[in-house]
Amino acid sequence: MALPSTFLPAFVFLTFCLCLYPHLASAKHGSTGVTRHYKFNIRMHNVTRLCQSKSIITVNRKFPGPRIIAREGDRLVIKVVNHVSNNITIHWHGIRQLRSGWADGPSYITQCPIQTGQSYVYNFTIIGQTGTLWYHAHVSWIRSTLYGPIVILPRRNTSYPFVKPYKEVPIIFGEWWNNDTEAVINQALQTGAGPNNSDAYTINGLPGPLYNNCSSPKETFRLKVKPGKTYLLRIINAALNDELFFKIANHTFTVVDADASYVKPFETDTIFITPGQTSNVLFKTKNLTSNAQFMMTARPYSTAAVGTFDNTTVAGVLEYISDTMSSSSNITSIKGLPLPTLPAINATAYVANWTNKFRSLGNSQFPVNVPQTVQNRYFFAVGLGSDPCPKNQTCQGPNGTKFAASINNISFTSPTIALLQARYFGKSNGVFTTDFPSIPLSPFNYSGTPPNNTMVSHGTKVVVLPYNTTVELVMQGTNIFGAENHPLHLHGFNFYVVGQGTGNYNSTTDPANFNLVDPVERNTVGVPSAGWVAVRFRADNPGVWFMHCHIEIHLSWGLRMAWAVMDGKLPNQKLPPPPSDLPKC
């Protein structure tokens, strides 16, 4: 699916949109946007990768799932019908969900799961966001195959703050296991060890030619381009457990967006992206003859000192074509192509430099609304820990324990009733408590020698925020069982990344260097390996909002918590009642 050329007249542009995006044609128009209806049938589907076939959970039997396409200001009504034996919820990752928290999707946070044979309608409006977001299952590890892109076009009669691309192409990174991922995580939680590694990374569901000799031509992603054109690549990291570097040989990108927020454009030849993050990049092709081919590759970034990870490389092909050229190609023709050179696996300095390049666009049309004053301050230590091994069981975690993860040494215990329901109906007793610590209760040298006692505590605890409170949150990475980069995702909000650094955060000297002019606005940010990051946001969205590491095994181990934002005084500052079809617990 592609957007038309910069030089097409307006009426041709609209005609193309109606043809390319049929939901635009059938949508119902409102005063500020249109209502777009989608139906997601969650079904098993047989897929073959790496010479093995297995049945996977999909949306409408598509892997990756179908695109959702809308404009800023549109309302989306998405009916999800569960035809599989697993419980299902879907999270619309990055959507602000202003006063629509019932549609956010994380299981047992805003809703109980959709059970087999049941359905639920997710109903929300896209407010103040343009760019690329994505959706994924938010139960256990089901998102390994249930994910897809959300394309948000500018409002009608408005345009991008950059040259209009000739075409737009989603680039979705994923992870593929030959085994059932539910069995993988269940085994890890049972033994206390790290999970079995994935067997491959994928680009748009395809692992490419670098994995064993049975990879078929159909398993390699091919980006077909014409010379001298500007393409918009909508990049999504949907991998479960790995941050990734991405590069196309002999080409460069111009980064224009992060997490559906415009940034000051900058050029790079290598993209770094964590699980959960999205980015729009402009990609201008060279004036080359047809048949020119270049390899594109992605591989992980990791500083983990314990466990193993999938240290493989996914590859695709950039192919130059002409209007008359056949689109078919032979996979043997690419085997001699050189692979692009990517940063080292543990290129921490590169990652720090990369993240420092991001600045909000910050003009009159897209202003920066970072809070200049702060009412509530929090300091969260995030990292790994351990749980004792149960009696009569042999555990394979550190020193015979089980791996765990925590925020301020609290490892989150999932409730059996959705937190938002408990809060809305005033039935929080026995479901959650409001005593989540604002600072670590036992401070230590976070980026240095870890404490002797690495055991975590457990609880279902939330932070309560009055409506419209301004918040500053410093997240400090710890060195327990090794320093790692932790991509923290906050539901229901964007935040401004006002500072970051290495080592331990210094509350006396570090705030002097905060960027309160044009900090990047995101929904997912990496807490640097053995470092810290500071964000600010305004709690203007009533509801209960999940915050967690987007490395799935860390989420499973408990690196998660929730913010409960209270109603404001005015009607438009209150959470509406739940929809009648909200799944039962």
Q: Radius of gyration, rounded?
A: 23 Å
Strand count, sense and barrel status of the largest sheet are: 6 strands, mixed
Number of helices: 6
Query: What global shape is seen?
Result: globular
Structure classification: mainly beta
Distance between the termini: 39 Å
- Poorly predicted residue ranges: 1-26
Order of strands across the biggest sheet? 11-10-13-18-15-16
* Average pLDDT, all residues: 93
Roughly what percent helix?
under 10%
Number of strands: 33
Q: Estimate what percentage of residues fall within beta strands.
A: 35-45%
Detailed description of the structure:
One of its GO terms (biological process) is lignin catabolic process. Its cofactor is Cu cation. Its EC number is 1.10.3.2. It is found in: Secreted, Extracellular space, Apoplast. With 585 residues, the chain is mainly β. Helix content is 8%, strand content 37%. Strands 11-10-13-18-15-16 form a six-stranded mixed beta sheet, with no helix packed on it. A six-stranded mixed beta sheet has the order 22-21-26-31-28-29. Strands 1, 2, 3, 5 and 7 form a five-stranded mixed beta sheet that branches. The radius of gyration is 23 Å and the shape is globular. The two termini are 39 Å apart. The N terminus is likely disordered.
